[in-house]
Amino acid sequence: LIELDRAHLVHPVASWQGHEARGVRLLQSAKGATVTDAEGRELIDGFAGLWCVNAGYGHESIVEAAAEQMRRLPYATGYFDLGAEAPIRLAAALAERAPGDLNHIYFALGGSDSVDSTIRFVRYYWHAKGQPGRDQFISVAQGYHGSTTMGAGLTALPSFHTGFGVPYEWQHKISSHYSYRNPVGDDPEAITAASVAELKAKIEEIGPERVAAFYVEPIQGSGGVLVPPPGWVKAMRQTCRDYGVLFVADEVITGFGRTGPLFACEDEGIVPDLMTTAKGLTSGYVPMGAVFMADHVYETIAEGAGAAAVGHGFTYSAHPVSAAVALEVLRLYEDGGLLENGRKMGARLMAGLQGLADHPLVGDVRGRGMLAAIEMVTDKAKKTPVPAELNAATRLFDRAWEQGLVIRAFANGIFGYAPPLCCTEAEIDAIVERTRKVLDLTLDDPEIRQAMA
Ligand code: PMP
User: Fold this and answer.
1) Which band of pLDDT confidence, cut at 50, 70 and 90, is reported for residue 168?
2) CATH number of residue 182's parent domain
3) What is the pTM of this model?
4) What's the structural domain count of the chain?
5) Could you tell me the CATH number of the domain that includes residue 414?
6) Quick check: CB of 326 below 6 Å from ligand 1?
7) Residue 16 pLDDT
8) Domain stops at, among 334, 354, 371
9) Site to substitute for ligand 1 among 47, 54, 107, 112, most atoms within 8 A of C-beta
10) What is the distance between the alpha carbons of residues 173 and 158, in angstroms, rounded to a whole number?
11) Which structural domain range is residue 168 located in?
12) Residue among 53, 54, 115 whose CB has most ligand 1 atoms within 8 A, to mutate
């Protein structure tokens, strides 16, 4: 399989970064928070797949929901006005639980195309408002908003959009709130004030009559789990309102219990104009994304369109099998107690990881709920990142794997954690203990020692 993978299966990020040498890591099965590799070794999945298997693996009731839907009606297009029960019930259930008046749900296939869909909805909105000149978008450095062509423009990773000749001049970035490495220091109020000032300056620079929307993750995930200071999201939301700029919350990672409540916007006390979700929506069992639109957004587009069709949709939009799975996953979060367990285990995870803060290699421990990160540094006082040439991502991922722990290791020496919400206390403690072991082994790594000297 490893040979066949190398020969035929393209994983752009890995294949073209020289990871073929080691070959793909194969999993064969999973249950709860445990995954089993091809050799039969069990590992704790501290990352819930790719921040998505929030409910954990192997829920028979999810399998049953999918099977039952497949038997009864495996497909009904959500593209036109044909429908099926499951996506309608799901849309109603989500609208009921969403913050404020986010009452209109568009189902996509995952996170990237949910984000892409919002870009089109935002553009439709401004056309309908008679302000088609509002075609400029702002997002945040270190942000990730997917890898479809439009969404990749909002993503702040240059490798996702430079060098391919795709025009991105409609896209603007402001600095991240990244508290640990912020030029304005770590005072929450100073960081928020600086970000508000920068957002205002950016809007003024582009011209307020040209700015369509601002995109932000309530907690930046792929950027390294960067948690904004309290009040930051709310202040940015207010700034957008002051300028009439639409505020889009990208909750693809933070949604569905990852940070405690069903949506992180609830913790922030804000209602965005649009919100994107995916991952935990179906807990990774099948692909699906959901875009939430506030009443005024939906109604403006509908009125503006009049009798004309709004040309947007996918063959698999509102897929009944995905919707049936999402309904069962939602039941597990609520009636099955997963949200509650996630909140308890999230507090335990944060406390456990905080206990590693004194380790000589640990510069920062941060997170909220079941979303956390440890940032490794080679000099604690100077916050020196691990040198890029040490390839910390692969090194740390492999070392954790050997300890029976799956984590996300970012290139700059950051470990990311997003365990399934079903984790037991023993599993959370094992995640922390195995991390300690990885850190100790890394401290003995001659190249790391040299970087620290
Ligand atoms: N938005 C955010 C905040 C994400 O973290 C991701 C994926 N990590 C996406 C969008 C894209 O989602 P997908 O990979 O499902 O297309």
Assistant:
1) confident
2) 3.40.640.10
3) 0.97
4) 2
5) 3.90.1150.10
6) no
7) 67
8) 334
9) 112
10) 12
11) 63-334
12) 115
Ligand 1 centre distance from Cα of residue 17 (Å): 20
One domain for residues 309 and 164: yes
The per-residue pLDDT for range 115-146, each reduced to its tens digit, is: 999 999 999 999 999 999 999 999 999 999 99
Q: What is the pLDDT of residue 310?
A: 83
Q: How far is the CA of 111 from the centre of ligand 1 (A)?
A: 4
Q: Ligand 1: does its nearest atom lie under 6 Å from the Cβ of 112?
A: yes
Ligand 1 centroid to residue 92 C-alpha, Å:
23
Q: What is the pLDDT of residues 232-274, one digit of tens each?
A: 999 999 999 999 999 999 999 999 999 999 999 999 999 999 9
Substitution site in 144, 256, 283, 288 for ligand 1 pocket (most atoms within 8 Å of beta carbon): 144
Tell me, yes or no, whether 224 and 311 share the same domain.
Answer: yes
**Domain shared by 199 and 322, yes or no:** yes
More confident residue, 384 or 411: 384
User: Ligand 1 center to residue 222 CA distance, Å?
Assistant: 9
ipTM of the complex: 0.99
Cα 52 to ligand 1 centre (Å): 10
Residue 217 CA: nearest ligand 1 atom is: 3
Choice from 253, 258, 265, 316 to test ligand 1 binding pocket (greatest atom count within 8 A of CB): 253
The verdict on the CB of residue 224 being under 6 Å from ligand 1 is no
pLDDT reading at 411 higher than 80: no
CA of 331 to the centre of ligand 1 (A): 23
423 lines ligand 1 (CB under 6 A): no
367-384 residue pLDDT tens: 999 999 999 999 999 999
